[in-house]
Amino acid sequence: MNSLRSLPSIEQLLQSATELIGTYGRPLTLDALRETLADIRARFKTDLETALPSTDLILAEAESRLAAWTKPTLLPVINATGVILHTNLGRAPLSRAAIGAMTEAAANYSNLEYDLSTGRRGSRLIHTESVLQKLLGVEAALVVNNNASAVLLVLSALAHRKRAVIARSQLVEIGGGFRVPDVMKQSGAKLVEVGTTNKVRLSDYENELADAALVLRAHRSNFKIIGFTEEPDFASLVETAHKAGVPVVDDLGSGALIDTARYGLAHEPTVQESLAAGADIVCFSGDKLLGGPQAGIIVGKKDLLDKVKRHPLVRAVRADKTCLAGVTATLLHYLKDEAEREIPVVRMMSLTADRLKVRAEAWRQALGVGEVVESESTVGGGSLPEESLPTFVLALSVKSPDKFLKKLREANPPVIARTENDKILLDPRTVFEEQDETLISILRSLL
Length: 447
Ligand SMILES: *Cc1c(COP(=O)(O)O)cnc(C)c1O
Fold this sequence. Notes:
This protein folds into three domains: about 5-70; about 80-85 and about 345-445, Aspartate Aminotransferase, domain 1, CATH 3.90.1150; about 95-340, 3-Layer(aba) Sandwich (Aspartate Aminotransferase, domain 2). The protein has helices at about 10-15, 20-25, 25-45, 55-70, 95-105, 125-135, 145-160, 180-185, 200-205, 235-245, 270-275, 300-310, 315, 320-335, 340, 345-350, 355-365, 400-410, 435-445, and strands at about 80, 85, 115, 120, 140-145, 165, 175, 180, 190-195, 210-220, 250-255, 280-285, 295-300, 370-380, 390-395, 415, 420, 425. Strands 5-13-12-11-10-6-9 form a seven-stranded mixed β-sheet, with helices on both faces. Strands 2-14-15-18-17 form a five-stranded mixed β-sheet. The chain is of the alpha/beta class. The mean pLDDT is about 95.
């Protein structure tokens, strides 16, 4: 008959657990051993015939607890969905230069807020400002945590308790919980809606411009209004607002700096066009079509941006040094006209169906199963709804597509794919070439 008394004591176990202590530290190891012993005692009490485990088995059980407790929950995954800016998969993967700059900033002290010429306190805002001035010809710029905070900050600084005019057709919700009217209310601005859901005219704006602090144009991003619609072109809206002495703020969202039409997509309004049309301030994301780290970029007129920079919220939404380094490195790719070669998001958009067909074909040959079929990749990330890029995918017929998708998600690294007509589709557009081998070996082990 077993007896709980023959179980080793915590002290004895700790003496045998030097390796675990070396890896996980003594307090956590002690915790794991205690829990493991308690578990064994409980199992024994419900079943007296149960065999008592050896010291080695107890240590192994403790180790699996320790491994589970310390396993990161944020894991790299292989994105085989063909959605380039998949918000749930972390939006834009970064260029090598951006990764390098962020690593440097993270590992070292820097002149983040230190003026090397005077030896005095400096401003973190200057690091991205000069490259944005050069690239976009703007007077001033400011980089904050994300575009949602950029819009909130600008409205708070310029329209708190004042009238902010916006078209009803732009009062949309973008992605997880960014609702334009709610953000406007949160800033303390008095929301003045003009026009109707589908139609807004210049005269609708004109009637409300007296005493307005600003006009906001919000890009509808992931939403499209079709049919009987009307909206004044942006340049005329700016002209009308300026005649009444009212500045115009443009929330562009994705913030394309290059014309997406060159990849056969619809034209996404660019930051340069918005500035050329006369926008006083333009806000956009760092990690959508720009292809950089999460950030909100605010560019425009100096007098307005000076007000924004002085607002107390600036401190609450400021970008950290790694973000500033990554944004600057990403913007430099545009300045040096090498975006398509260096920025993964742009490169993925530029891949032709012919090239992707070769990749999908190579996957099929390596696996010896499946078929290569025409399909569509999308941009995602709240940009270019209804638009797609022609691609070729590897289509696999499996018994239970849902179970297969689950197994792919449980792989190391997890693989995210999609199904269509009961087939598993794997799109090479969003899979890095250096991931091909890993992907193939995961698929082989599951098929
Ligand atoms: C995506 C988007 C936002 C939010 O930007 P985040 O960088 O995700 O905070 C705000 N406005 C528009 C128009 C957008 O498309």
